[in-house]
Task: inverse folding
């Protein structure tokens, strides 16, 4: 029986005016600004349009924000956008996200595994795999294929070990002590300690066809990427185009579309022009000031809360002025988040905490960071910087979901200059931003910088590992800032060992506010996941997630 077919509703045809109103929902003293906590602007109070899943067929052309096509490896590069449009289309994992609905934050559900049992000590998870699942090359998926990929990621003595795949999966593998085949359709995974977050980790581990890997080798695998996912890759021209066609033998039913065409368009203006010219049907993150024009032209405007916060990772190591918690707190109080939201036409809203109001990990008992430049100046003076200080910041010119780094960083530079902090802005490529994230500020290549602009998507508790001491590089990934707190770490690991969801959420809420009070990160706005589509695109649900489900999307004539 399919585990898929519940479908929710999306925020289609949301007008620019309603987006503005919803951004300030509630009374004015709830909507942010001096001394107030920003409310969550889009959610159950938004007008919802029904989703039409009555049709099938067509070719969907998507303009990506990435500067290049994601390499279709396991996982793809180009950050979470690579996973969104390539990873979860070509591949499956033992778990997948419930992104076919938009009413709640998606959670992992079983995918390539049809059932799981856990030992009494909560260490060994035994998965019964689905039978009859096919790779795109016609071979059958079974336990040997899972072992092959685990060895490819973690066994340096294995002939097909891939250091790049190992590095990008390092965080997901960190808690796993061993894996073993029980029988043809059963595997057992044992963790080093009880890990209630294992389903989240396993949702990120994709399984390629071993036959293809062995035939072409790791270096050439991306030219022949082959998984068990709903779409198979039929064309890949680096830097130009990727084509994915519906996999007729997909285990959970053929997807509705015939084909997806992915096109890298790192400039928002390029995506806008292509959408208006009819060259693409779906534009990720067009210019925010184009929303009203696009809505008036009949395009579908999608906005919704989801875990995606625009951040500046702060160098907490000795040698940086940001080693002092007072300086880090000062930066957070110096930011005019309302002004930043206005700058981007309210396709994002002010972030007072790492999570947004209404999310289970948002701490209602703490007001978070407000715009208070006088408090920022006082903290800087207390830390010995009454005469000002200089900082160096790297930021990407484009890439996976970074919203609008040019104007947003110029605004940040102005805000910080107003309290005596001079920031030198240094543009680098998006994939180098990811390299810096994985390497950390202690790495000699990145130690000269104080800040790094990056959008992070805490779609799972594992996203908080960016602020847990055990994940400071090179021991783990990806605590770039080098932040460690005995109190915060204890809360995180207690949550990780807690299998009761309500108690787990309570602990993660405490972790989030404890970490934010120490401020290893500067937060600005929560993204509202702006995407715009042709009226011909049908059947799409806007989830409260970075990831999406395209299986029931189709194109009208």
Result:
């Amino acid at each position: 029986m399919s585990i898929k077919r519940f479908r929710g509703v999306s925020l289609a045809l949301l007008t620019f005016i309603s987006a503005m109103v919803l951004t300030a929902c509630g009374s004015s003293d709830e909507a942010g600004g001096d001394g107030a906590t920003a409310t969550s602007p889009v959610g159950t109070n938004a007008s919802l349009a029904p989703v039409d899943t009555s049709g099938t067929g067509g070719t969907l052309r998507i303009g990506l924000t990435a500067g290049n096509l994601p390499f279709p490896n396991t996982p793809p590069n180009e950050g979470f956008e690579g996973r969104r449009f390539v990873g979860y289309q070509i591949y499956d994992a033992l778990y997948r996200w419930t992104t076919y609905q938009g009413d709640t934050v998606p959670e992992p559900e079983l995918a390539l595994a049809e059932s799981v049992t856990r030992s009494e000590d909560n260490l060994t998870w035994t998965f019964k795999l689905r039978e009859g699942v096919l790779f795109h090359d016609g071979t059958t998926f079974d336990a040997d294929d899972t072992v092959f990929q685990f060895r490819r990621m973690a066994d340096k003595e294995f002939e097909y070990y891939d250091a790049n795949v190992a590095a990008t999966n390092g965080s997901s593998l960190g808690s796993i002590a061993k894996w073993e085949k029980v029988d043809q359709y059963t595997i057992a995974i044992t963790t080093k300690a009880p890990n209630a977050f294992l389903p989240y980790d396993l949702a990120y581990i994709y399984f390629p066809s071993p036959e293809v890997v062995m035939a072409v080798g790791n270096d050439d695998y991306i030219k022949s990427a082959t998984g068990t996912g709903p779409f198979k890759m039929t064309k890949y021209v680096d830097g130009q185009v990727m084509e994915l066609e519906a996999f007729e033998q997909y285990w959970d039913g053929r997807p509705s579309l015939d084909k997806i065409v992915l096109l890298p368009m790192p400039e928002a203006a390029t995506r806008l022009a292509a959408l208006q010219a009819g060259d693409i049907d779906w534009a990720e993150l067009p210019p925010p000031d184009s929303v009203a024009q696009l809505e008036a032209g009949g395009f579908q405007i999608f906005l919704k809360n989801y875990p995606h916060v625009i951040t500046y990772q702060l160098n907490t190591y000795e040698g940086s002025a940001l080693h002092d918690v007072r300086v880090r707190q000062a930066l957070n109080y110096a930011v005019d988040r309302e002004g930043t939201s206005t700058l981007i036409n309210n396709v994002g809203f002010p972030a007072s905490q790492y999570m947004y109001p209404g999310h289970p990990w948002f701490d209602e008992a703490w007001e978070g960071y407000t715009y208070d430049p006088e408090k920022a100046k006082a903290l800087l003076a207390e830390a010995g910087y009454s005469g000002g200080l200089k900082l160096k910041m790297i930021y990407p010119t484009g890439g996976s979901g970074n919203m609008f780094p040019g104007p947003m960083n110029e605004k940040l530079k102005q805000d910080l200059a107003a309290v005596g902090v001079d920031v030198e802005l240094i543009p680098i490529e998006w994939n180098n931003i990811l390299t810096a994230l994985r390497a950390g500020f202690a790495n000699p290549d990145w130690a000269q910088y104080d800040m790094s602009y990056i959008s992070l998507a805490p779609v799972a508790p594992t996203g908080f590992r960016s602020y847990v001491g055990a994940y400071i590089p090179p021991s783990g990934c990806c605590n770039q800032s080098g932040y460690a707190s005995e109190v915060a770490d204890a809360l995180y690991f207690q949550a990780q060992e807690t299998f009761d969801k309500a108690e787990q959420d309570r602990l993660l809420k405490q972790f989030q506010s404890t970490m934010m009070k120490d401020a290893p990160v500067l937060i600005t706005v929560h993204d509202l996941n702006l995407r715009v589509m042709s009226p011909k695109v049908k059947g799409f649900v806007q989830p409260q997630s970075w990831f999406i489900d395209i299986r029931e999307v189709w194109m009208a004539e």
